């Protein structure tokens, strides 16, 4: 006899396959956690709070996540992916000159931070100091940002004078500077106009390119 809500093969329940229902619950938990972590903070939240916000029974939480830290890692991955996508989309015009590409990419980056304050709170603040695993995830995002910068400026770098390994080290410093600019902007409640913040970030990038580019003195 087929159980109520299941087909003959036991594959469906209430009109959706069990795997799909689990994916839906997982997505709702991530969405709810993004809101809670990004507005109230990770350290003040609980699994019970997230489940209530997601409309998901607490017993279903553990089918997708081992604990709240595991959920934080997933929320951080998705948030970082949004930042990286914004930069990618901003810098995708390969025909533009390097200064334009940098400005458009940085504008997209800071615009997302301005439009959705949950993004910087999760990416820059809630993620820090939780555990070694979470710290590694944070630095993996920095690595990804360095990769983007390297791909963007590599054609404009004098690699004979500045080996790739040295350039990568410099770019870590550059990415760190951009992140600090963003953090300061957020902590100051976005008082500085977006265009001024972008101008400042572009000035930092331009100063680095002026020293490592083929036309550097």
TrEMBL record:
Official protein name in the record: TetR/AcrR family transcriptional regulator
DNA-binding residue intervals: 46-65
This protein's UniProt keywords: DNA-binding, Transcription, Transcription regulation
Annotated spans, Disordered: 1-25
Highest taxon in the source lineage: Bacteria
Domain HTH tetR-type as annotated: residue spans: 23-83
């Amino acid at each position: 006899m087929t159980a109520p809500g299941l087909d003959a093969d036991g594959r469906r329940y209430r009109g959706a396959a069990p795997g799909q229902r689990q994916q839906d619950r997982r997505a709702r938990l991530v969405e709810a956690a993004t809101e809670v972590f990004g507005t109230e903070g990770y350290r003040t939240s609980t699994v019970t709070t997230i489940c209530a916000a997601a409309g998901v029974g607490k017993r279903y939480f553990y089918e997708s996540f081992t604990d709240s830290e595991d959920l934080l890692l997933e929320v951080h991955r998705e948030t970082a992916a949004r930042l990286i996508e914004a930069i990618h989309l901003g810098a995708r015009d390969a025909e533009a000159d390097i200064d334009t590409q940098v400005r458009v990419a940085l504008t997209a980056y800071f615009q997302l931070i301005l439009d959705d304050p949950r993004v910087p709170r999760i990416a820059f603040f809630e993620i820090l100091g939780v555990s070694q695993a979470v710290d590694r995830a944070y630095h993996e995002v920095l690595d990804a940002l360095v990769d983007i910068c390297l791909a963007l400026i590599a054609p404009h770098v004098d690699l004979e004078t500045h080996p790739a390994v040295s350039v990568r080290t410099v770019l870590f410093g550059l990415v760190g500077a951009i992140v600090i600019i963003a953090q300061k902007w957020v902590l100051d409640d976005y008082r500085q106009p977006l265009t001024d913040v972008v101008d400042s970030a572009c000035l930092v990038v331009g100063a680095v390119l002026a020293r490592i580019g083929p036309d550097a003195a």
